[in-house]
Design goal:
Length: about 190
């Protein structure tokens, strides 16, 4: 989503996406040091978070901020999160996948229960007008339609070559090869991709 929003805001020009790491373009709200990055950014800002709605609700009430909430099949989330735990040195090393899955289902992982997280955000449908709900699977099946929907929501519709460039840049192969996106530039003592 960080890539899509960056490209929408830059009218399909991938230059920024190819030269600035996504964590600098769209810092994680819960990451140490992100406040300084956000304060130094002028104009519209792209902020990334995995925080549950209840921790952001007061900040969003009456806010003009636009929120894009991406949900994903919990089976895929559990597998992906397990592998992320194996790479990320700042998270507890998971034992077996079965044990990790038990913790995931109990909600005793970072950010808590996936089920409560999704319920917290989706319960705001119709309450908060500034939230777009989209699924990872929806984007995977129809990236163009999803990108058109997202750009329309951000009041920055992509047309012609802007959309074509964005779709090309957000392809799986392009993003896999882009060091600004795939987190391979993060020091090995923080995230080990081997």
């Amino acid at each position: 989503m960080q890539e899509i929003v960056t490209l929408v805001k830059n009218r399909g020009d991938p230059q920024l996406s190819k030269t600035v790491p996504n964590w600098a373009r769209a810092p994680w709200l819960e990451q140490h040091g992100s406040a300084k990055v956000l304060e130094a950014t002028q104009g519209d800002r792209i902020i990334t978070t995995h925080l549950p709605y209840n921790l952001l609700s007061s900040a969003l009430q009456g806010s003009k901020a636009k929120v894009i909430y991406v949900t994903r099949n919990p089976k895929d989330v559990a597998v992906s999160y397990y592998h992320f735990h194996k790479m990320a040195k700042f998270l507890p090393e998971p034992n077996s996948f079965d044990e990790f899955l038990d913790s995931f289902l109990e909600g005793s992982v970072s950010y808590g229960s996936w089920f409560d997280h999704v319920k917290g955000w989706t319960s705001q449908a119709g309450v908060l007008a500034n939230v777009l709900y989209i699924s990872y699977e929806e984007m995977w099946l129809d990236l163009q339609g999803s990108m058109e929907r997202i750009s329309s929501f951000l009041q920055c519709p992509l047309v012609g070559e802007e959309l074509t460039n964005s779709l090309r840049h957000c392809s799986f192969s392009s993003m896999s090869d882009n060091a600004m996106v795939n987190y391979t530039q993060i020091p090995k003592e923080i995230m080990d991709h081997s």
